[in-house]
TrEMBL record:
Pfam families: AAA_21 (PF13304). The keyword ATP-binding applies. This is ATP-binding protein. It comes from Shiella aurantiaca. The keyword ATP-binding applies. Keywords: ATP-binding, Nucleotide-binding. Residues 51-354 form the ATPase AAA-type core domain. GO terms for molecular function: ATP binding.
């Protein structure tokens, strides 16, 4: 369960932006009627979904991109043994921010315990890293790290009493590597707990991320998948999956000898076959005979059913891609009906902007500031916006910014057409 994410100096993000999933103290009748939109954790209410709106090029996708990068660092940084490694992200390019570190801080719940983890880095190396947790509701230090304090590991690191032989891990942690990743690799319990959360609970996209297997997900969720597709007005009543061998070529070019070798190989291909209600005897190949929307729904629902079943978190950019508005509403409703699953997504779908569906603190906006950086803020920040107002209309009118301002007057368009001749 995610409580809060903070990002600084990633892509178009210059100053710190905060995605806070802790529910605000909203006492209106409409908010009370949306009690299924939150999860209770102790004295804290946590949002199940967060919708992020913004104009094209405002930076909303950069927020998703930055979160994905930071999570992938956690489960892959221990593989960075090459001193020439350059981390695959960009800093804010103006005002000297390309020379400043970028930072990521996340507060989350794993197995009933709250953690606060963060790190900062340049494109060349880790600068700082820290982990705290709250085993009995009180903040306890696991470790802190600051590579600017010296060359000796004892100067760089400070430890609590949680990790056994912590300096052994530090001695095996380079400036290219996150300590928490190395601690997991070296079988330290809290390191494994953090690693497992990001690798197994924080799903960075539909199938294809986090090593999720289509075959495994299908075997575990077939009955629920067929029912979910039926609810979504699909006439698919049966799906079968099998692996088959496909002949292929492996081409290898040796630059030293300037020779090209070609070998015949066999690769396993996953064949997905659908059967429709109108004629259940006729098979359809999912990849070549079904629509883009049907293929999208197949993979989306496989992922979502697993996420909901195991109380995971899903991160999606442009949730409406290839999907009808009603299907997007259906997906959001599935998360609201879940026990503890969470969904963070960007969208242009203004039909979702309805206070019968979302609390005010579930709607976020990204706006491009005059200096080219991205700002993130919540509808809840607009204290004068009442629950009785038309949210979609207000957004499209530009009340919250975060929309493109287009001067499409006839005179402008005619001038454009004239200049293109």
């Amino acid at each position: 369960m995610i409580l809060e994410i903070r990002l600084t100096n990633f892509y178009s993000i210059k100053d710190e932006v905060v995605l806070d999933l802790r529910a605000a103290n909203i006492k209106t009748q409409k908010a009370k009627s949306l009690s299924d939109n939150t999860i209770t954790f102790g004295d804290t209410e946590v949002l199940k979904t967060a919708a992020i709106y913004g104009a094209n090029a405002s930076g909303k996708s950069n927020i998703i991109k930055a979160i994905r990068f930071c999570c992938s660092m956690i489960f892959s940084s221990h593989l960075n043994n090459n001193e020439n490694t350059i981390f695959n992200f960009k800093t804010f390019k103006f005002k000297g921010f390309d020379k400043k570190p970028s930072s990521f801080i996340i507060r989350f719940i794993s197995k009933g315990i709250e953690y606060e983890y963060g790190f900062s880095l340049t494109i060349h190396e880790i600068v700082t890293e820290e982990l705290f947790y709250y085993p009995k509701g009180r903040k306890v230090k696991v470790f802190t790290r600051d590579e600017r304090l010296g060359k000796d590991k004892s100067e760089v690191y400070s430890f609590g009493s949680v990790i056994k032989k912590p300096l052994d891990v530090a001695d095996n942690t380079s400036r290219k590597t996150l300590y928490i990743s190395r601690a997991s690799q070296m079988d330290r319990e809290i390191g494994k707990e953090i690693f497992t959360f990001f690798n197994e609970k924080f799903i960075l996209g539909y199938v294809g991320f986090n090593g999720l297997s289509v075959e495994r997900l299908f075997q575990e969720n077939k009955a629920q998948l067929l029912k979910a597709l039926k609810i979504a007005d699909s006439d698919i009543q049966e799906i079968k999956i099998r692996k088959e061998k496909v002949a292929g070529k492996n081409i290898n070019a040796d630059l030293a000898t300037q020779k090209l070798t070609v070998k015949d190989i066999e690769q396993e291909h996953l064949l997905v076959t659908t059967f429709h209600k109108s004629n259940p005897e006729v098979p359809f190949d999912l990849h070549t005979e079904e629509s883009d929307g049907t293929r999208e729904m197949f993979f989306i629902m496989l992922t979502i059913l697993d996420i909901i079943k195991h109380d995971k978190i899903l991160l999606i950019d442009e949730i409406e891609q290839s999907l009808h508005n009603k299907i997007v509403e259906y997906i959001v409703s599935l998360f609201h009906a879940s026990s503890k699953a969470q969904l963070i997504f960007t969208t242009h779908n203004t039909h979702l902007l309805n206070l019968e569906r979302f609390r005010k603190d579930q709607v976020f906006f990204v706006n491009k500031k005059p200096d080219g950086s991205s700002d993130l803020y919540s509808l809840f920040d607009y204290k004068d916006f009442r629950d009785t107002m038309d949210l979609e209309k207000a957004y499209l009118q530009g009340r919250f910014d975060a929309i493109p301002y287009i001067n499409s007057s006839i005179s402008n368009l005619k001038e454009l057409m004239h200049e293109t001749k």
